[in-house]
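Fold this complex.
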Amino acid sequence: MRRDRFKKDTTAKNYYEDRFYVAPQSPKFDVLGSKFEDDLKALDGLVLNSYVEFDQMVVFVDKNDNLKALEKLKEFGYEILSELSGVDFIHQRGGIEVFYQLLSIKHKRRARVKCFVKNGEFLQSATSLYKSANWAERELYDMMGVWIENHPNLKRILMPDDWYGHPLLKSYPLHGDEAAKWYEVDKIFGREYRDIVGEENRDSAFIDSKDTFNFSRIYHETEYGGVEPSEAYLQEYQEKGGVPFIKHATRDKFKILKKRR
Amino acid sequence: MAFHKVDYTKENGLPVVLTTVDKLVQWGRSNSLWAMSYGLACCAMEMMAAGGGRFDFDRFGTIFRASPKHSEVMIIAGTLTKKHAEFTRRLYDAMPEPKWVISMGSCANTGGMFNTYATVQGVDRVIPVDIYLPGCAPRPETLQYALMILQKKIRKETPRRKQKVKRVV
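Structure:
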């Protein structure tokens, strides 16, 4: 009989608890009094909120002030924009939190500028300050759907130009929407071939052992349209009787090397 | 050596081979399969190894070509994304007839572990495939064996000018 060692625990525990592991918040410190004090002062008046987390300064600015803040930090010594992306908070707060990850080689420090872009709002492009923002902003637009103003070439970068939707949004289904399901068929053959080509098989556990075209059993391999042989057989390289001019190769004459030469 | 001095009973019979033109053509075709180097992901490394010295595709008459117009075999080695599917079909269409396709690895066969919005769930949705090669990633000798099976398949075909339609797509 199985031991019921968990019974005691569950009754003692609170029934209502988080279903998933919630990571504890990382410790945050005040910027004033840290080595980032001068960095924060360079941003005079623009900062909504700030703290130091994992030895990096994080500042929140208004989304209209993002260029001003980046310009001031660049003047201060943050020469490199190493990363730019967003976090989907559409469900909680109705928008996307965009972050700019900055690196200062001069001061050997990293800082992060964050701003919140609501749905339907535009964000000013940082390409005039940092060259790396060009591709990163295109990716931000492609995957999250954030519109960037004054970008020199705002078009999709990872997904095809005619792709419907923005895949990194949390509301986007992992397997893609209806348009994604038929994308390659529509594009290559046209919509009228949907019935002939068929739907994608998204069920990775699906096995039809009678379907020898999409699923062939080992030692029962058949060609398309062929009947699966009832008895197991080994695929031979040569047909019976051999091939002209080529040495007759049979399985029993194979030589297996004991070690590499 | 003078003609009359050759003992044909000892030298595998007369120096004559009788065959049909069909067989001769297909034998020739099967031993000069020029493959399009079409590496998409990790399987491409195994494909490169198969082309390299230890496994040596050249001895099968298989030479990797960079142009679809020189190639008759397309080895799809890796994950095919939906963005790329259109170009794959275009390259396949640019290849002269007759042509064959080896789908190499789980990703090319069925989408593999990438059951996602951006991956084509099997290249046979886009182009007809002759040989499905299982594995993730298959070893070079597996690719070599797939090529040998393809050679056998080609030898069995009839060399008509127009190939049979493999699949209505």
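The CA atoms of residues 60 and 148 of chain B lie 8 Å apart.
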